[in-house]
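Q: Given only this backbone (331 positions), what sequence would you predict?
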């Protein structure tokens, strides 16, 4: 037995150890053959012979198990050492520095600005019903202005929202004035070209208070300060426009940040860039949510439009194509 124990102790691999186990306990193994001899041993010697074999079997089995555990642990340690990674090691030549996507960066800047003015941030569902997306915003069925916001319809007149204005309606339904909020989020329209995509991000703002506290002058001051914060020392102008949910309504332009107002290809040689829309909330919108004796103003802007202007990106679609040549510029 000592010879077998020596072989086991000197084994250096699990494969060699398995060979020894087969040589001992296999069909033609040493101990298997010895146990087969029991039938030929005289009866008076069988007990002692079997006891001796069982003791050898127990000792050899235990030696095999201990050696197997030892070899397995050694092999595991060797593997772990070979695959070890120093996670604290910094290799400047192979590491890449991450950065905000320009749309996310612009969105965060705008939200932070209005939060500093005590505007609450409200969110709502992207799948809306017709009432919140159109009817409550003074856009009844068959109103021609609905064509400007052609959208994706689902079953039972549910649709993908075309603006974040439904969040304003839901907020007014659940809160009493005064309200001071912005509604950031994704919106959906059936457009796809250099300046439009089927999905884009929008931020809308709403301020509501008693009828004698809100005027167009308040709106003009807030938006002028905001646009100069985002684009620097630019001129801001308000042009009369039409939106069903505001009256009066205005488009807001800034002096072209590319040519300084002198006129260039980007601003179509007008010296001005359109950046957002705004107005005094229409009385029909307040009636839809049950408000009385209040006034308010609202505004809305496309985040991608702001990102394109701030970072001087020529094609809106490039913001969604994940081109590393473009995104790598914002590290």
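A: Predicted residues:
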């Amino acid at each position: 037995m000592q010879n077998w124990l020596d072989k086991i102790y000197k084994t250096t691999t699990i494969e060699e150890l398995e060979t020894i186990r087969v040589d001992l306990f296999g069909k033609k193994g040493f101990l298997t053959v010895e146990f087969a001899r029991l039938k030929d041993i005289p009866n008076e010697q069988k007990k002692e012979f079997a006891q001796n074999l069982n003791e050898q079997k127990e000792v050899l089995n235990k030696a095999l198990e201990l050696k197997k555990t030892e070899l397995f642990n050694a092999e595991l340690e060797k593997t772990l050492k070979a695959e070890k990674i120093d996670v604290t090691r910094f290799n400047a030549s192979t590491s890449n520095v991450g950065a905000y996507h320009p749309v996310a960066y612009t969105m965060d800047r705008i939200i932070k600005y209005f939060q500093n003015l005590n505007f609450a941030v409200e969110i709502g569902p992207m799948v809306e019903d017709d009432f919140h997306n159109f009817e409550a915003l003074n856009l009844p069925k068959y109103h021609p202005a609905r064509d400007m916001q052609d959208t994706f319809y689902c079953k039972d007149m549910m649709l993908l929202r075309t603006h974040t204005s439904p969040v304003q309606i839901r907020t007014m339904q659940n809160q009493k004035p005064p309200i001071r909020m912005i509604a950031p989020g994704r919106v959906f329209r059936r457009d796809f070209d250099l300046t439009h995509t089927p999905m884009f991000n929008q931020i809308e703002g709403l301020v509501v208070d008693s009828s004698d506290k809100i005027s167009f002058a308040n709106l003009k001051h807030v938006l002028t300060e905001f646009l100069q914060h985002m684009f620097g020392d630019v001129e801001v102008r308000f042009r009369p426009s039409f939106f069903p949910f505001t009256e009066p309504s205005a488009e807001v332009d800034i002096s072209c940040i590319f040519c300084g107002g002198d006129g260039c290809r980007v601003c179509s040689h007008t010296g001005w860039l359109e950046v957002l829309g705004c107005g005094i909330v229409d009385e029909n919108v307040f009636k839809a949510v049950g408000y009385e004796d209040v006034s308010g103003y609202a505004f809305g802007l496309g985040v991608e439009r702001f990102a394109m202007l701030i970072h001087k990106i020529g094609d809106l679609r490039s913001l969604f194509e994940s081109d590393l040549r473009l995104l790598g510029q914002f590290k």
